[in-house]
């Protein structure tokens, strides 16, 4: 019962995620524009042009992608959009703070994003964003026990 409801929730979240990507904020032309402005991405593109086989990235149709393994044997690689630093906060707001996103925790938010986007220190920035979310701080309870009285 609970696993089927979790699967249904995950399916709804995937549909929502697809909607967010196709929305105006994260369409591929906007990502291309922002990648052009990002100096670290431009440096990475130059490195790839010099030796494409040396890096786990691919530059295709004007967009830089990170190649990530999808299984333990590293036989299958998935292309993830290398998200420019200028778009990280708006993406995190869309996947966490948006009224349809549900203010999920660090792991769930990470798993929603990790199959579509990549950027350096991704887990850390997701964690910092969620830990700084005022609504989550107000509504999430502290599950640790209070220290006992000293005698």
Automatic annotation (TrEMBL):
A Pfam family reported for this protein in Swiss-Prot or TrEMBL: Integrase_H2C2
Protein name listed in UniProt: Integrase zinc-binding domain-containing protein
Domain Integrase zinc-binding per the UniProt entry, residue ranges: 84-141
């Amino acid at each position: 019962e609970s696993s089927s409801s979790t699967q249904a929730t995950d399916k709804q979240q995937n549909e929502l995620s697809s909607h967010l990507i196709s929305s105006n904020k994260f369409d591929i032309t906007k990502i291309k524009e922002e990648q052009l402005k990002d100096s670290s991405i431009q440096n990475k593109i130059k490195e790839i042009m010099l030796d494409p086989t040396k890096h786990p990235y691919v530059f295709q149709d004007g967009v830089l992608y990170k190649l990530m393994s999808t299984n333990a044997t590293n036989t299958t690689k998935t292309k993830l959009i290398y998200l420019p630093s200028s778009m990280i906060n708006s993406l995190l707001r869309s996947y966490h703070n948006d009224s349809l996103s549900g203010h999920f925790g660090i792991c769930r938010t990470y798993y929603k994003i990790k199959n579509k986007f990549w950027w350096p220190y991704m887990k850390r920035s997701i964690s910092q964003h969620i830990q700084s979310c005022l609504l989550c701080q107000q509504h999430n309870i502290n599950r640790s026990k209070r220290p006992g009285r000293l005698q």
